[in-house]
Amino acid sequence: KNSQSVGLILEGSIPVSSGTEFDLPVKMMTGMEAGAISLGFYYPEEYLEITGAELSNGDNSFSWSAMDGLFRMAWCNLTTLSIPDEGVFLTLHLKSKDLSGLNNSIALQLYEDSEFADGAANVAQGVVLSVPVIERLVTGIDPNEAIAGLSVFPNPFNKQTSINFSLQK
Questions:
Q1: Which residues of 81-90 are buried (b: 16+ CB within 10 A; e: fewer)?
Q2: Hey, which bits of the chain come out as E strands?
Q3: What is the pTM assigned to this prediction?
Q4: Beta strands 115-118 and 32-42, pairing class
Q5: CB count, 10 Å around CB of 97?
Q6: I need a labelling partner for 11 at 20 to 30 A (CA). Which of 31, 61, 108, 169 fits?
Q7: How far out from the chain centre does Cα 93 lie?
């Protein structure tokens, strides 16, 4: 392999709270008839657990592993997988761990040896994938915290609204 044939863009977000199961869609921006897929993503295993993976045709019998912060999968078939433009071709099933220490969103990173091939086993060039970032869902404020000086401008809300507040700590 002498060049990167797959790229990744981050598009959209999925809000997640600690200890929840959720699905992460993986899209291909320019579709193709895939005959083989070798794909991987780096993920922070201290925050996420990958519990499964499924292709858009319902196939989940392909080889995959998730360990040491790297998800890898391999799929091939004599019957190609038709992936439309901007179509979800893979769904990762995940479970979040304790996200309380998470300060930023989680963005999967593409494994450098990822590649797609067509039905004749020719490596596809210029494949671009899209995945959403994972945002920590803040579900509330500690009831022991006091909110003082809450103000909203303008009220009622319009296209741009400022909400000002202060917390004890």
A1: bebeeeebbb
A2: 6-16, 21-28, 32-42, 48-55, 63-67, 70-83, 87-96, 109-110, 115-118, 127-136, 147-153, 162-167
A3: 0.79
A4: antiparallel
A5: 16
A6: 61
A7: 10
Sequence-distant (≥ 6) Cβ neighbours of residue 122 within 8 angstroms? none
Separation CA 82–CA 169 (nearest Å): 54
Burial of 166 (0-12, 13-18, 19+ CB in 10 A): exposed
Residue 136 in tokens: 């920590």
d(CA 167, CA 144) in angstroms, rounded, equals 11
CB under 8 Å to 50, separation ≥6 — which residues?
Answer: 43, 66, 71, 92, 93, 94
Q: What is the pLDDT along the chain (169 residues), one digit of tens a residue?
A: 445 789 999 999 999 999 999 999 999 999 999 999 999 999 999 999 999 999 999 999 999 999 999 999 999 999 999 999 999 999 999 999 999 888 889 999 999 999 999 999 999 999 999 999 999 987 555 444 445 556 676 767 777 777 777 666 6
- The answer to whether 43 and 71 are in contact (CB under 8 A) is yes
* Length reported for the chain: 169
Distance CA 130, CA 142 (A): 35
